[in-house]
Amino acid sequence: MKPRLLILMTVILFCRTAIAGIIPSPQSRTFCNGYFTLDPRTAISADTASAPLAIYLQEYLPIMGFCGQLFTAQAIVMQVDPELAEEAYRLSVQPERIEITGGGYGGVFNGIQTLFQLLPSDVYAKQLQLPVKIACQKIEDAPRYSYRGQHLDVARTWMDESRVKRYIDFISYHKINKLHFHLTDDEGWRIEIRSHPELATIGGFRGGDSPIRAIYGKWDEKYGGYFTQDEIKELIAYAAIRNVEIIPEIDLPGHSRTIARIHPEILCNYTPDTAPSNGYDERSAWCVAREENYALLEDILTEVCELFPSKYIHIGGDEVQMEQWMRCPDCRALMQREGMCDPAQLQRLFMTRMMAILEKNGKYPAVWNEAIRGGQLPQQSRVHGWENLKACREATSQGYRTVVMPGEYFYFDMRQSAHEPGHNWAAIFDARKVYSFDPASLGFTAAEIKHIEGFEGAFWSEIPVSQHPETPDYTDYMLFPRVCALAERCWNENPPAWEEFYRTLTGSHYDRMSAMGIRFRLSPPAVSFRDGVLQAGTDDGSALFYRLETDSVWSPYQGPIRTDHPERYLFESRKGSGQSPEVGAPQFYRTIQPPVRITSSMPAGSKSPFARAEQYKAFARTTRTCRPGDWVLFSFDNPVRCREIFVQTGYLQLPRLIFNSGYAEVSYDGQNFEQAGALEQGSITIRPEGCPVYAIRITATCPDNGSSSVIIQPLRIKP
Ligand code: TNX
Question: 35: helix, coil or strand?
């Protein structure tokens, strides 16, 4: 055999070649001749500034590792060059060495992440097989924005340290460098405050005998958790190694129901009407006029400032229910004394006092966009624009440094297509829409664009707690690949076309995410039905499966299916640890709306009468919650033949407004009822399989669950 062929064969047999396609894509990349061979003898050298990264790198690469001085032939050399911008880096792969030069620590870290993407994806699973050849090349790169954020709500769904670390890993692999950590809300307080330990020890748990009501999720059982300050310190350090700054949020003065349950004295000075909520005080805003409140707030914020090294502390400011202040004689008197006419000015007053506490502790404030509506805030305030694009422009046009995160592009708690789980109030969108986000083409002026500090994705967690409480899968599914698209957009002003990005995603990055351990979402398979043939396909190399809707077992899809019942089939695809949503042909989703009459043992409210659900217009709402024996009866004007009827109580965001437990019965003759099964999460799917249905009745077996009403959704009937 000729020597050159031998070399080639060796390369093919023993070395896996580097993978193209990097997310986020670098500014410039040029290939040179030759290879660097990463093998177990490769050394790592790092200057003092990047020393922690030598240890980090060693965790991922099974190589000889760190040595202060170079004495082996091949090495990965990491260093800081202050000539470069802080987070910029140069990655140079030469036959003898790999050099990663960063403007600062962050730059070196970013260079390492790019290097990882030149290696087989096993690197993320810490299972890289050596040797590996990496083509010689030079990459020069720098981020567009210094703020590349991802938000995580651990207040609604408790996520422990290991879960948060897992997310820090995931976002840092994508060069996201800020974690906006939402620690308190109406449903939970997740941070130990040493001067007031009750905030976390009581406020971290809800349900059961906790005074914190479980608005979302289970409520018979007490559950939850919080971070001790030591755990927080560990998270901060863990994140810092990964170039992620944790920015804590204490959501004020609204979204404070948890602390108000523990310290009701912080609330406004009036007796609320608690009858509609079964004696429960729903108030959620701090009283602005109660002077003692500021001492407690100072205790809390001072500890938060001491704990977190971030320059900015997020103090909330969103969705304050200001009627509470308008009903409070003390707040009204304060407004009068201050010559205020708008309660938004009260909020500004409150925020200004919080900012004074932050300033005393050497910190700057970050706020949600509503907070700028009561008058000017200090110019160094960072504003998170979330409500919509307009709110983001409002902040930038007033000159605030703005983190742009409009719900309709960056709220990753929104569902990704119509029939998937998630909220929909802002929009229904997938990674492609995230990827399309470009302020210039969306109407931001050049002056406004100057004030954009960066972008941020949000993950609010009301829904996972009620749907998938104990697993991280849902969060993974909602975040990825949308975070990948966000990362690209934060990094590059002119990113590759979507088609190219998608090619990298499916061609390389799905494998990487699988090795990272992310349970990401694949695009839904395309399903069509024509001339008696049902067909499905994917564009991402994933494996396709199908099942009958009545059967839980999936079979590999072998090709077109001849059938008279396209509505009965479901498809999904899988690749690595990725999974698509289940989808059917358009026929699968078709529903009918036969005339029905709804009656109940519970009265319906005048604003949401049963007639609305009867006419399939919107949900109905009772005036009280259900008790054992309470029932709702759906009687059809004419018997209905169909394959499926879905009966749903409750409302997506507020699952407590359901029949907590109960059962359903069906009448197939208009006189007798037969059991159809137990309700689960307030709902049941009934399959009459073509038998005429005269009526359906659901009966509650639960004791009063302490909420104000039951929501009855229109029936969803599939022919
Ligand atoms: C609005 S975003 C909220 C959150 C919810 C979210 C759900 C913001 C500042 N407030 O409290 O969790 O919508 O999408």
Answer: strand
φ, ψ (nearest 5 deg) of residue 678: -85, 150
Ligand 1 centroid from CA 263, angstroms: 24
Sheet arrangement for strand 716-718: 683-686, 644-648, 716-718
Distance CA 361, CA 357 (A): 7
Around Cβ 617, how many Cβ atoms within 10 Å?
Answer: 11
> Best substitution site from 460, 462, 479 to test ligand 1's pocket, by max atoms within 8 Å of Cβ?
460
The pLDDT value recorded for residue 19 is 35
Region 566-573 average pLDDT: 98
The tokens describing 135, both together, are 């083509």
Model pLDDT for residues 355-387, shown as the tens digit of each residue: 999 999 999 999 999 999 999 999 999 999 999
Q: Report the pLDDT value the prediction gives residue 6, as an integer from 0 to 100.
A: 47
Residues ≥6 apart with Cβ < 8 Å to 471 = none
The alpha-helical segments, DSSP class H, found in 221-291 are 229-241, 257-262
Q: Could you say which DSSP state residue 134 is in? A: E
Residue pLDDT, tens place only, 629-653 = 999 999 999 999 999 999 999 886 6
DSSP type of residue 148: E
Write the DSSP string, 376-416.
Answer: ---TT-EEEE-S-HHHHHHHHHTT-EEEE--HHHHBTTB-S
